[in-house]
Design goal:
The protein is of the alpha+beta class. It has 2 domains: 6-69, Arc Repressor Mutant, subunit A; 80-247, Beta-Lactamase, CATH 3.30.450.40. It is built from 9 helices and 8 strands. It has helices spanning 6-19, 27-34, 38-50, 67-79, 81-97, 139-145, 150-156, 172-185, 226-247; strands at residues 54-57, 62-65, 101-107, 110-117, 132-134, 188-191, 198-207, 210-220. The strands form 2 sheets. The protein has a 6-stranded antiparallel beta sheet, sandwiched between helices. Strand 6 and strand 7 form a beta hairpin. The radius of gyration is 19 Å and the shape is globular. Residues 5-67 form the HTH iclR-type domain. GO terms for molecular function: DNA binding; DNA-binding transcription factor activity. Residues 68-249 form the IclR-ED domain. One of its GO terms (biological process) is negative regulation of DNA-templated transcription.
């Protein structure tokens, strides 16, 4: 990594790991997951707890994400008008399809989920903001990766592509064939490649021709009949047009991502 201040990187790594643990995490587990020894990690945790970026439950000896992280997140959202524009369209998508809608950005070799609007279906995708998934397997990732060359894809995945289900594509030639189809039809598909019980459709969001994010709709496989899929694709494509029209009238969206 270039220009990385390792003490700062350790703090951020700790916060990210704690945020990913819904049931909390103890010191030993946190040390194992971050690769930071306990002697180094403990004073960092004490400071983060003091500033409420992390909470510590003494009765269980577990660390949780603190309220200060929530305040920062909310402040970013409120000051980023482009996110509000997209969120309103996501709500509209959910009201029409009654399926969960998510937004993600490309962060290195992963998709980072940065917004989500839930449906009121009894059975739906269980996910959360902050989730990271392999970009080559997710619909959100594919719609953004399809613009890159095979050489760049290989640089992102020097150890090769991974598979999470029997339906996952982990061959670069097959992935490129998918990419060409995506560019031709204007949307991408995750056909049970991350979760065998879920299919997902996504479109990219561009500002003045540059992709800045993507939005998707996920459907339980048993509900993904031809009529539902057609509805989802049409709604996504229509929302894409409205969002991009709005984005083109805003200042440039600037996103920094690892690996960029």
């Amino acid at each position: 990594m270039k220009n990385i201040h390792m003490p700062t990187a350790r703090v951020l790594n700790i916060i990210e790991v704690v945020s990913s643990m819904d049931e909390g995490i103890n010191l030993t587990q946190l040390s194992s997951k971050t690769g930071i020894n306990k002697g180094t990690i403990h004073p960092i945790l004490k400071t983060l707890v003091e500033y409420s970026y992390i909470n510590f439950d003494k009765s269980k000896n577990l660390y949780y994400l603190g309220i200060s992280c929530s305040i920062l997140s909310r402040s970013f959202f409120e000051k980023s008008f482009w996110l509000q524009v997209i969120n309103e369209e996501m709500k509209s998508i959910v009201s029409l399809c009654n399926e969960v809608c998510q937004m993600g950005i490309l962060d290195g070799d992963e998709v980072l989920y940065i917004d989500k609007v839930q449906s009121d279906q009894a059975v739906q995708l269980v996910s959360k903001i902050g989730t990271r998934l392999p970009a080559t397997l997710s619909a959100l990732g594919k719609i953004m990766l399809c613009e890159f060359t095979d050489e760049y894809i290989n640089e992102l995945y020097p150890n090769g592509l991974i598979a999470l289900t029997p339906y996952s594509t982990f061959d670069i030639k097959k992935l490129r064939a998918q990419f060409e189809e995506i560019k031709e039809r204007g949307f991408s598909v995750d056909n049970r490649e991350i979760n065998e019980e879920t299919v997902c459709y996504a479109v990219s969001l561009k500002q003045r021709g540059k992709t800045i994010a993507a939005i998707s709709v996920s459907i339980p496989y048993f509900r993904a009949d031809d009529e539902k899929v057609k509805q989802v694709i049409n709604v996504l494509v229509s929302a894409k047009e409205r969002i991009e029209s709005a984005l083109d009238n805003l200042q440039d969206v600037k996103l920094n991502s690892r690996g960029a």
